[in-house]
Amino acid sequence: MKWTAAQRLRIGSGRQTLVLGVTAGVLVATTLTGCAGGSTGDLTAKGTCKPEDVTLVQSGRGLENEYYVSVDAGARAFAAAKGLTHNYKWIASEGDSGKQLSQIKSLLANGGECVVLNIDPNEAAIVPSMVKAVDNAGAWLVTQWNTPPGLLPSAKDSHWVAHMSVNGVPQGYDTAKALFEAMGGKGSIIALQGILDNAPAQERFKGLQKALAEYPNIKLLEDQTAGWDRTKGQDVTQSLLTKYGDQINGVWAASDSMALGALSAIKGAGKTGKIKVTGIDGLKEALGAVADPSSGYVATTQSTAVQQGAYGLNFGFAAATGQIDPATEPADHRAFYLKPLPVVTAANVATVGDPADTSKLNFSDLWAPVGQQVQS
């Protein structure tokens, strides 16, 4: 397979360099380095678990966040489809990486090789420890969103079944362009970033930077992290409104949670509708705001939360029960972006369904959610 320079991304990690190609919208790892050194587990064994013996585990920050409610809905739908509702567990990290790692190790100690984990790591830095713990237990892991630069599942380690994400660059770019157009192509904005160690935060901000390069009359006054958190998004926006006042014409946020916090701060300042806002993730409240012309909420993206919960467990379950041997799967089945969904604006928001709707999930074609069509 050959890639053009525009399709090739080099990621350095110490002395290791990983070359990723983006082809058909799929994140493909061409050279991978394992991270589970010292593992005592059998890294190439095909799963032999009986379906009824599998424990399904979904981990994210917490169900007070609407995004994770939808992730949980997708995960529960998969568990129900396999008759494993009684074997499904949701564990909340509450934004604490140490707690999340401890929870996982405890579950592995009790469940062993028939545990399937679909994990949204709180921070990329804890992924190597997760992978090592899973390898040692002989269990099965799918990671979502976050992994350290240069570190993805490899043929040498079948227990880290897959890493799945959504390409954040077009998300950040498309929502930024919608924001800039709503501002008339000129003015100044502030930006709310997610956790800086998170791959989607980095990708989405790159998308914003790409859009800024195309709109010379838009100025980025300042960017700050609000940690994916609604309250922090409100607090940071209030602080920047105090600092910059009427200079701010727009707020670009890397998630809807932070954007909704910003919207509250804007309302508190008496500037609802005067300052435009965009977010990402397709939360129901954000979709409602986009549908309301007076809110100033210009755009978001469609949610992939249900897909990530359901299909992440499906990949792990298939490995645990021997339906697939991850070590023999192609690289684009081990590290990939889900198929992209269009940006949501007032023009199409009426066509977007409930973010927690599980009725369209299809588990018969394991790899159907993988990748996206190349756009000419």
Short description:
By secondary structure, the protein is an alpha/beta fold. Helices cover 33% and strands 20% of the residues.
Secondary-structure topology with pairs:
Elements: E1 8-13, E2 16-23, E3 26-29, E4 55-60, H1 66-81, E5 88-92, H2 97-111, E6 115-119, H3 127-137, E7 140-144, E8 160-165, H4 168-182, E9 187-193, H5 199-214, E10 218-225, H6 230-244, E11 250-253, H7 256-268, E12 276-278, H8 284-291, E13 297-301, H9 305-320, E14 335-337, E15 343-344
Parallel strand pairs: 4-5, 4-6, 6-7, 7-8, 8-14, 9-10, 9-11, 11-12, 12-13
Antiparallel strand pairs: 1-2, 2-3, 13-15
Helix pairs in contact: 1-9, 2-3, 4-5, 6-7
How would you characterize this protein structure?
InterPro entries: Peripla_BP_I (IPR028082), SBP_2_dom (IPR025997). It is found in: Cell envelope. GO terms for molecular function: carbohydrate binding. Helices cover 33% and strands 20% of the residues. The chain has 376 residues and is an alpha/beta fold. It folds into 2 domains: 198 residues, Rossmann fold; 134 residues, Response regulator (Rossmann fold, 3-Layer(aba) Sandwich). It has a 6-stranded parallel beta sheet with strand order 5-4-6-7-8-14, sandwiched between helices. β11, α7 and β12 form a beta-alpha-beta unit. The N terminus and C terminus are likely disordered.
